[in-house]
Amino acid sequence: MTGRKEGRGGFEGLDACVHCGFCLQACPTFLATGDESDSPRGRIELMRALERGDLPADDAALAFHLDRCLGCRGCEPVCPSGVQYGHGLEAARHQLAVARGVSRLARLALWALTTPRVSKVVYWFARRFRATGIPRRLAGWGRFRFGMGMLAATKPAVEGRRGRKKVGKASSFTALARPRPPSTALLFRGCVQQGLFSHVHDATKRTLSVNGYQVQEISGQVCCGALHAHAGLIDKARMMARVNVAAFGNGDEPIVVNSAGCGALMKEYGHLLGDDAGARFGARVRDVTELLAGDATRGPIAGAPLDLHVAYDPPCHLLHAQGVAVPPLKVFAAIPLLELVSVPGAAECCGSAGLFTLLEPEMSRAVLAVKIERLRAAAPQVVATGNPGCQMQIGAGLKAAGSAVAVRHPVELLDEAYRAAGRYE
Ligand code: SF4
Ligand code: SF4
Description:
The protein has helices at 28-33, 40-52, 60-67, 85-100, 104-114, 116-132, 134-138, 143-152, 192-196, 198-210, 226-230, 234-248, 260-266, 269-273, 276-284, 288-293, 316-319, 326-333, 356-359, 361-378, 388-400, 410-420; strands at 183-187, 213-217, 255-257, 285-287, 309-312, 339-340, 382-384, 406-408. By secondary structure, it is α/β, with parallel strands linked by helices.
C-alpha cells in the first residue's frame, strides 16, 4: 500500500477519554493557570466540539486554549484509558492552521530554521555570534535576552574549556570498539541539531563506535517535519517525511536520532503518512541512548570516572512520546562516580516545545520558572537532557537566573568519559 489512509486524522485518538481527570496534575499548563480549559480534559472537550462542528476552527477561545498547549504529551502516560492526545492535537491544529493560517512569526521561524539554503546561512551567523561570547553576556529574561541565552546554551562545553585540546571531528578519530563485527546505524542530522549542536552528532558517532556501531551518513535527508506538524502544517510535514523515507531507503539498519523531538515524530511517520513505508521507517528509528543501552542484559561499555553531580531532565518527547525511560539511565550508569541528583517534577515539560517558547513566551516562561527553581534547589553541576529545544530552554533559564550550570546531552558526558578512558586514538 502506498496511499494515505483516510480517517478522522487523529481525532479518533480522543475517543477513549472518560473524563476521569487523572491527567490534570500531569499537565504543566493546568498547574500554571488552574483553568480546566488549559487541562488535557478541557482541551479534549474543545477538540471534540471542533470535530463535531459545534465550535468553528476560528473560535477565539478554542484557539486560545489549544495554542497554550505545549504538546508535551505528559497527559498520555498517566491516562488509564490510553487516550492518544498527541494525535488529536495534531488533527485539531491542522484544522486551525487551515482556518486562520499560521502566524507570520511561526512562518518566519520555520523558514529560517528549516529551509536548507536559508538555515545554513542563519546557523553559520548564529555560530559566529555565539563564539564572540556576546549572547552569554546578554542572557536574561525578556524576549530578546532570553533568545540570547538560548543561543549561548548551544555552545559546546568542551570547546570552551581552557587548557584542553579541542575535540576533533568524529571522522578524525578511531574508537577502540568491542571485538565483534560492527553493526551499521544511519545518522539523522536534523535542522537545529545539525546547525547548532553538531558536536552532539560527533559525540554520537564516537560513542556508538566504541559500542560496536559503524555510523553512516545519509545524503538527501531533510528536517524531520516536527516543527511543522506542531504548527499545524501537516502537509509540509508529510512532504518532509516522504523525502526522509526515500533518503534512508528500504534497509533494516537502525536510524539513530539524538534529538527527542525529531525521534518522536519519525517513529510516527506511519501515522503521519498513513502508509506502510512510513511505518517501516518509524520502526527503524532509535534514540541514540536506546542503541547505546543495547539489549536488556548489557549497557554501554563503561568509561572513565567523572566525578559529577548530574540532574537528568528527560525530554517529554523521549519519555512521554517515545516511552524511552531506562536507556538514558544506562548511559549515566556507564560513567563511574557520576551521581544522578533527584529533582522533583523532572518529568514535567520545560516549556520549550518546539516553537512554543517563541510563540507563547508568557506560558513558556511560567512553566520554565518552576523547573529552574527546582533545579537551583537541587544544585547539580550539570543538567543533562537529550533534545536541542530543552537544552536551549533550560540553559537560557539557568543563565537568566544567574546560574553557571551547563546543560549537556547525555552522550556528551559518555563521550567525555570515553575520552578520559583512552577509548579514542
Ligand atoms: S485524557 Fe485520560 S486521564 Fe485525562 S480525563 Fe480523559 S481518560 Fe481521564
Ligand atoms: S500535551 Fe502537555 S500541556 Fe498539552 S494538555 Fe497534555 S500535558 Fe497539558
